[in-house]
Amino acid sequence: MADDTSDLPPEPAIFSAIITPHRSLSSTGFLIFMLCIGGISFAAGIMFLMLGAWPVFGFFGLDVLLVYWAFRANYRSARAYEEVTVTATDLTVRKISQRGEVREWTLNPVWVRLDRIVHEEFGIERLFLVSHGRRLSIANFLGADEKKSFATALSAALGEARRGPTRTVI
Asked: What whole-number distance in Å separates Cα of residue 103 and Cα of residue 27?
């Protein structure tokens, strides 16, 4: 029997979000920061070189190299992201790692519950999608206020998906 679902138009999304890690330093800011660190380290290294402590000069260069390596590793990890899409029949979560590895879950929005771990002082710490006794952690990149906003929007979308398609009668 042939599958005729490929001829149907894609289902409209009720909710769609792409969640990315926050990075406060742009590439231009990173360049300026590295130039400042390099300049300060070079000047301090020259001072120690003139005082006769020539091995210290190399350690200042090593410090700049380690700071550069740490920031590059941080920017590499920023390539990871999550996609959350809710339609009338599916809730799809795609997690893409920094290496481009894709993991995808498709859940029925009728059976999904949004679970929160809330700290009374800091707000929402963790969000989970719970279905059939299994938990899927989502939105780990977001801060507490952003998680609250995301949870509100996702809960509204799940509620709309549970109500099913509505028709306008003219």
From this structure: 29
